[in-house]
Amino acid sequence: MAFNKYYLVSVIVIVFCAVWCNAATYSEPAAVNPAHPGKCFDKITNRPMLPGKEYKPKGICAAMTCDIDAKQINIETCPDIEAPGCVQLPADPRLSFPKCCPQFVCKDENGNEVTLDMTD
Fold first, then answer.
1. pTM of the model
2. Which of 13, 29, 98, 102 could form a Cys-Cys staple with 119, CB 3.0–4.6 A?
């Protein structure tokens, strides 16, 4: 029985992500700061960033990466999910990305509540 429930939850997550999940990824221009050559300078956190290293700033539910060649900062945030029949649980901004992203409670075909964690 546990295998069937795990399988069902996996199928639900895969279907939701295949149809309704859109990871919110975007880029912003990296600022130039002469005090930090060869690094991106993020105006939001007011910090230099090493190229290719992922940063997860406190208080921001996102992962940021410096692309020095493109002179931009790539930012990944929580997926935008449309899950009919599901209820979004509150996110916890104190946690690091992606654990800070919201979870969803849905009902399976038997009416049992299933929690979908999109951070795995």
1. 0.69
2. 98
**Domain housing 70:** 2-116
3-state secondary structure of 17: helix
Judge contact between 16 and 83, C-beta under 8 A: yes
pLDDT tens string 37-54: 999 999 888 999 999 999
Total Cβ atoms within 10 A of residue 74 = 17
E strand segments, the chain: 21-29, 40-42, 47-49, 54-55, 62-67, 72-81, 87-88, 104-107, 113-116
Q: Which residue stretches of the chain are H helix?
A: 2-19
